[in-house]
Design the sequence.
């Protein structure tokens, strides 16, 4: 298989784009595709200070690498959730730290859940009225990302969500016709309140396979194992299903997501609710719809009472 | 004449496959989804149409994450 640009040995074939590229032209192509995505959806402005949420995995580290190559002023955030099965969180943190030092040459902020709050995510979900693992994990990450972004005065938080992530969520929400979620799914999530940070997904048009290939070609060391608690996750089941469709008809995932975005732009998903009343949480000060205590602080309060 | 083989590794699993087949065919032969993995030889990414040579060591990397 030869590179369509230079005739050298291709490292990847992408039937969905009718492209085969060598290592050098592949990384150039990925960076350009992300640059165009940022431009198309107005995700970032030149000079923006960007907080990159990194997990130690292929997507977020590739994202950080690409944003550095595009010239953005970036810093990383790693949240150690305390998943000690197979040393998952610690190994992931080591990858994030190594990348910050050797590739990004930029600061990495580390928030260790147990050190700062006294409990890990597995402990939180095991005791008292703790939520289920993935739910608690998502809540904790959203809260801490927002806190660090607001305190640091960043223009936005960039996350490594790729096309497969977005297509899987879209499929899940479409099958259940979750209009509220469909309305909110987008490459950029605006800051709807001064207390919320803006979030952007610059990899949303890159296949998961493409971000993994980019990391491998760039020599980025990433955590290869999956979170031990994600085994059997619905997202993975939807991804496998979409891959079956992709195999029969290359480009299906991209067409699914892009058609959704076009329909959304055309007004197919009007707001399902009016302005939401937000109040400041009495403990952390972050905006919340849940009365005087946000969901994150309620989670910890419940732990203190029952755990 | 002995059949020449190569090795496929994925996490803690290992398989012997015949050389001369494509990486993609080998991935399917060991029961994995070619869309879910990428292949490395000598730590370098190789495309899935690459012909496997005798005594090659091919390491597969998972590309599907979620949860």
Sequence:
């Amino acid at each position: 298989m030869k590179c369509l640009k230079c005739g050298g040995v291709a490292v990847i074939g992408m039937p969905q784009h009718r492209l085969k590229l060598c290592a050098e032209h592949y990384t150039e192509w990925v960076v350009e595709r992300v640059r165009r995505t940022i431009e198309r959806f107005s995700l970032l402005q030149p000079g923006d200070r960007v907080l990159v949420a990194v997990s130690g995995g292929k997507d977020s580290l590739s994202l950080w690498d690409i944003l550095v190559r595009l010239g953005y002023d970036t810093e990383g955030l790693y949240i150690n959730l305390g998943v000690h099965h197979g040393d998952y969180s610690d190994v992931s943190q080591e990858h994030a730290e190594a990348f910050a030092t050797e590739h990004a040459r930029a600061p990495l902020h580390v928030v260790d859940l147990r050190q700062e709050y006294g409990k890990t995510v597995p402990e939180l979900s095991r005791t008292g009225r703790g939520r289920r693992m993935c739910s608690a994990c998502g809540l904790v990450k959203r809260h801490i990302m927002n806190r660090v972004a607001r305190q640091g005065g960043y223009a936005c938080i960039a996350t490594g969500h790729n096309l497969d992530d977005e297509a899987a969520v879209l499929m899940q929400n479409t099958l259940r016709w979750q209009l509220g979620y469909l309305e909110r799914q987008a490459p950029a999530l605006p800051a709807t309140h001064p207390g919320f940070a803006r979030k952007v997904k610059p990899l949303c048009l890159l296949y998961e396979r493409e971000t993994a290939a980019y990391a491998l070609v760039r020599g980025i060391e990433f955590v290869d194992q999956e979170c031990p608690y994600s085994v059997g996750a619905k997202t993975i089941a939807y991804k496998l299903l979409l891959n079956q469709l992709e195999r029969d008809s290359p480009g299906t995932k991209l067409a699914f997501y892009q058609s959704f975005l076009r329909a959304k732009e055309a007004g197919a998903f009007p707001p399902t609710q009016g302005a939401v009343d937000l109040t400041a949480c009495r403990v952390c000060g972050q905006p919340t719809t849940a009365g005087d205590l946000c969901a994150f602080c309620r989670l910890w309060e419940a732990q203190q009472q029952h755990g | 004449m002995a059949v020449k083989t190569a090795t496929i590794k994925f996490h803690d699993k290992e398989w012997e496959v015949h050389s001369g087949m494509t990486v993609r065919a080998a991935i399917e032969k060991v029961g994995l989804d070619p869309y879910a993995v990428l292949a490395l030889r000598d730590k370098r990414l190789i495309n899935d149409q690459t012909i496997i040579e005798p005594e090659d060591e091919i390491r597969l990397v998972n590309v599907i994450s979620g949860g």
Observations:
- The longest helix of chain B spans residues 23-29.
- The longest strand of chain B covers residues 5-10.
